[in-house]
Design goal:
Number of strands: 4
CATH superfamily of the largest domain: Cytochrome c-like domain
Distance between the termini: 90 Å
Oligomer: single chain
CATH topology of the largest domain: Cytochrome Bc1 Complex, Chain D, domain 2
Order of helices and strands: HHHHHEEHHHHHHHHHHHHHEEHHH
Structural class: mainly alpha
CATH architecture of the largest domain: Orthogonal Bundle
Helix content: 40-55%
Strand content: under 5%
Radius of gyration: 27 Å
Strand order of the largest sheet: 1-2
Length: 597
């Protein structure tokens, strides 16, 4: 009997050891293993979607498989977006052909959003072949993700940064409906994204024993619970949700990294690793937009650029400076429908505000200049604007003792002033015209006395019912897609020639410089709505004098909503059904985006 007891004891001990080993193996699960398992789930769901399409199942079943597939993707969106950005763009980018200027062509749209448009709001069975093709493309992309996730090194600092950026992505794209224009399932998908963040943090056993983890768990549990009930898009309190859950969650992920003593990455990221709030004044690193360190702004460069900005010696006849068309009290724009040429005749386009001009990949309304440096050259040498000659300008500047001293200090050289230095000094000053100190910014940083209830409602309408935030992305409120800021969008709105709205404006926009790409006809950059109250009149042709007129245009569905023939309009052409009171609330909010002196 004693021998039996001993045997049983040894057996139980062995089972315990094996159990502990299994537990430890699970707890030390690598991110490669975890993510590959998640991709396998995604791949299986896509297989079921393909099966449903091939077997002519009804639209309900096809939609169910589509939803299951995209929710599976959303759980790993944090990793795909960060480590495989090109694959992420193909997998879940907008259902619009993507512009590739290097190849001078449009790349046909593919991925989840294309599938979504084929099955929502109704499934057209005549599109079965295209739907099947898109589903198979998704399968191929999932296979690509699988192979990459097997070999990528998932360093702890990179994982934490990716998770923080995913929270920002949920804030700027997820809950706004950017990813779900047809299905309107943004809250269900946001729940999946947050669940993915939750699961990913729990993969590392060491992370779950921290004080920050407990706070993260509480924030995630409550935020997921709110999203899972799929609240009404038009009445959801986006402002409170961001301030109560999403922004604190991102800050706690940064706190977790500090608690774990994991050094932050120092790779000149657009959003630095140690930045926890999307609404901090220094959240966005402008240097990340620039080719190399020689472009970086310094106090001396900015001061020099400011002096050049107001100097009429940069024009041919010494009568015009940059400030002649970009007035500081008008958010560095001009209160004319369009600026005037040197002879006093109207130019074709409205003078864009220079505030936040550094936060674009492409300058001017038609985005023809890649950098602010090249933009300054374009304006100075344009025969209708300043008609200057940069070689002659630097000869004049080199004769100035004051300018020679300022350039020497700014560029740490005794060499004669060079053209590129003039361009860069002006660009440095323009990049400094971004202060993020509006009443909205103060509100997001904790001062709840800075925005009225009407302005708060206006923000919620801006993000929700009015769909403004799907083109004017937080926190810059322009067309540069956050939180990675890799590209800036152009839109085709169908802007009319005059207020009567009976004829489409004949300005072809970005197409003028890309005549092989017909899809760019009437396409223009999406400017920021920060300081919009000071930068009227509005649109590329200055057709609208008031924000009420602008909102009426959008409320009707853009050019198509006015009854115009607009090819490739990217703005939704259905009415927004905003009431007069709602429009006033949105306008009130936009006025709260004006920078304070």
């Amino acid at each position: 009997m004693q021998q039996i007891k001993s045997t049983l004891l040894l057996l139980l001990l062995a089972i315990g050891i094996i159990s502990c080993q299994k537990k430890d193996t699970y707890q030390s699960l690598t991110y490669n293993t975890y993510l590959v398992e998640q991709v396998d789930t995604l791949s299986t769901n896509i297989d079921q979607l393909i099966h449903a399409i091939e077997n002519n199942q009804d639209s309900t079943q096809i939609r169910q498989q589509f939803i299951a597939s995209r929710l599976a993707y959303k759980k790993i969106e944090w990793a795909v977006s960060y480590f495989l950005p090109h694959t992420a763009a193909a997998m879940n980018g907008p259902a619009l052909d993507q512009l590739d200027l290097d190849e001078n062509k449009f790349i046909p749209a593919e991925g989840f959003q294309v599938v979504e448009e084929l099955i929502y709001p109704s499934y057209d069975t005549t599109a079965q072949a295209e739907l099947l093709l898109q589903a198979r493309k998704l399968k191929n992309l999932s296979n690509k993700i699988h192979k990459n996730f097997e070999v990528i090194t998932f360093a702890p600092a990179s994982v934490l940064e990716a998770l923080k950026l995913e929270v920002f992505q949920i804030t700027t794209l997820g809950i706004t409906g950017f990813d779900t224009p047809a299905s309107k399932l943004q809250f269900i998908e946001a729940s999946a994204s947050l669940t993915g963040v939750n699961q990913a943090i729990a993969v590392s056993k060491a992370w779950t024993h921290t004080q920050s983890y407990s706070t993260i768990q509480q924030l995630l549990t409550e935020a997921i619970g709110i999203c899972e009930v799929n609240p009404a898009k038009n009445t959801f309190d986006y402002l409170n949700f961001i301030l109560t859950y999403l922004d604190p969650l991102a800050q706690e992920i940064v706190a977790l990294q500090r608690e774990l003593a994991i050094p932050f990455l120092q790779n000149n990221q657009v959003i630095a690793g140690e930045t926890g709030s999307l609404f901090d004044p220094n959240t966005i690193n402008l240097n990340a937009f620039l080719p190399d360190s020689s472009y970086y702004a310094t106090p001396n460069k900015i001061a020099l650029g400011k002096e050049l900005f107001f100097d009429s010696q940069l024009s041919k006849d010494n009568t015009r400076s940059c400030a002649s068309c970009h007035h500081p009290d008008k958010a560095f724009s001009e209160n004319r429908k369009t600026s005037l040429d040197l002879a006093g005749n109207p130019l074709q386009r409205n003078a864009l505000s220079l505030n936040y001009a550094g936060y674009y990949h492409g300058q001017f309304w038609d985005m023809r200049s890649v950098t602010l440096e090249s933009q300054t050259t374009d304006v100075i040498t344009n025969k209708d604007e300043m008609h200057g000659n940069l070689k002659e300008i630097v000869l004049v500047l080199n004769q100035s003792v004051t300018y020679k001293k300022q350039f020497a200090q700014a560029y740490q050289t005794e060499e004669p002033i060079a053209v590129w230095q003039v361009e860069n000094a002006l660009a440095s000053y323009i990049r400094s015209l971004s202060t993020f100190n509006s009443r909205f910014d103060e509100y997001m940083r904790g001062n709840k006395a800075t925005m009225t209830p009407q302005e708060q409602q206006g923000f919620n309408l801006f993000v929700g019912k009015a769909q403004c935030a799907t083109c004017h992305f937080l926190p810059v409120f322009n067309g540069t897609v956050s939180p990675y800021f890799r590209s800036s969008e152009q839109e085709i709105l169908g802007v009319p020639k005059d207020k009567a709205g009976t004829h489409l404006d004949d300005d072809l926009g970005r197409y003028v410089f890309n005549t092989d790409l017909a899809q760019l006809k009437h396409a223009f950059k999406t400017p920021t709505v920060r300081n919009i109250n000071e930068s009227g009149p509005y649109m590329h042709n200055g057709v609208y004098e008031t924000l009420e007129e602008v909102m009426d245009f959008y409320n009707k569905g853009g050019g198509i909503g006015l009854g115009l023939d607009v090819e490739n309009q990217t703005l939704p052409d259905t009415p927004l059904d905003l009431t007069a009171q709602e429009i006033q609330s949105i306008i009130a909010f936009m006025k709260a985006l004006s920078d304070q002196p």
